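agent> call fold_tool(seq_1)
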Amino acid sequence: MINQIELLEKLGIAAFGNAWKASLADTLKIARPTITDWTTGKKPIPVGVWRDIQKIIESRLMGLQGALLEIKEQRHLIIVQEMNRKGKVYLKGTLPDCLYSMTDDEIMGLLAAYKEEYLKCSTEYPNDFFADLATIKDAIDFNICIRDINGNLDLCIAEQCAISYEKNLKLAQSFDLDQIFLIDRVKELSKG
């Protein structure tokens, strides 16, 4: 037989943490002492409360899932802001902004497309250096580092990628390949 008091406590803690009694009472719009009466057995737990608690947990779960998705998709921007605040090297401009707006999966898809394009170009033109691809690769690598995609947040490597990006961007610009061209190249690669 289920112990309703233990279940109430378990669900309350799951929904609100250790200070669950007051939060549950406030959410159910009941007097706070009522929760204590339920947990001490002084009063029985009304049957309809379980449906309300289920709705509360489902709502909080949806909110937490949304928050988790938000932090997953935005944490790299927080890291870039912190690098900027600390005066560290980071990528800025229209091409980096384009990549920052991409999801982790899109970045990994772009990396795969880059590898395929680089292999094709280096096979056709083995003695050439591709400033556009080198610049894009540095931007991808920077994003991978700050997004912690490989499970190892390494800002030192990210800074090295940013320095290499700036160098390759200057080289690309000397060939009249501006950031708009590089964004178009990213879009072309992404469409594959």
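agent> call fold_tool(seq_2)
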Amino acid sequence: MARLDLISPFLNEAQAAQAFISLVAKFEAEVGRRFGLTVHKILVDDGSTDGSAEIFASGLTGSWEIVRLSRNFGKEVAVLAGLDRVGGDYVLIMDADLQHSIEIGLKLLAELLGDPNVDVVYAKTDRSDSSWRRSQLARVFYRLINSSQRFDIPANAGDFRAMRAAVAHAISKLRDKRRFNKGLYAWAGFRQKAVVYSPEPRAAGSSKWSRLDLIAFSLEGLTSFSAVPLRILTLFGLLTAIGGGAVGVKVLFEVLFYGIAVPGYPSLLVAVVFLGGLNLALLGLVGEYVWVAVSESKDRPVYVVRDVISAPEPVKPKARPETSSA
């Protein structure tokens, strides 16, 4: 019988653990009834400190394993740790915070299994109710990161996706240290299809992503998959140099032919501060790219596994001793 590997990374989800266990049991039953698949659950503990792993281990049934990482490596890496354990025919990545509903998970599987020409079906977040500022920032980000690429990273797509095992194995071979998964999925290619959905509200706890984390994550994506920011600053520097040269020619012309005095310290101070700030920004951006290169050049593993907790083997009944008839 074909097998589905369900990958669920988590971090400090003790409050939502019991609800997730119940949800997974319903999901497993539906997958068996609708698609005839067995489900192997791969949970990745990304350095939890609230005993989440123990709660999951005490409540999960069927075939499962919990990969406990030695510390918090980040969700992107936790997903990779799950992909490295894939041994089934299909894979579904679904968070353990209950924001990914089983209905959408089943829909992703139905789209994947119903179309042999599709390798990946991903959930695309509906942002129609987002603020104008946020939607515009997202649009600018994806326009920047997709410029001058041979592939497009779809907007508002995340890790909530179903895929064939060949795709999972291909992604697990990409050992980027600073991971931007949605970029890696797009880079790997394969035939992909989107399903629009709205995330469920969190059942318990709070989001692990702050605004600063999101900004840093976006910058990591840009420096990993696009050179456009460098090209923009290069072009801006050239335009600034041309503008400065034009102003210099104008000042020289006015002094030689009209005797107009050269402007004093205020204009000079503005020019120095502006160019100094621009140089610092450029150096900071170049430093980000250099740091990415340095990180990738170090021969460190992407993550370290503390241990793996697996479902206990079923106890086999003892064979009855044969009785001889007199």
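agent> summarizing second result for user.
The mean pLDDT is 80. The domain at 3-208+301-310 is CATH 3.90.550.10 (Spore Coat Polysaccharide Biosynthesis Protein SpsA; Chain A).
agent> awaiting next instruction.
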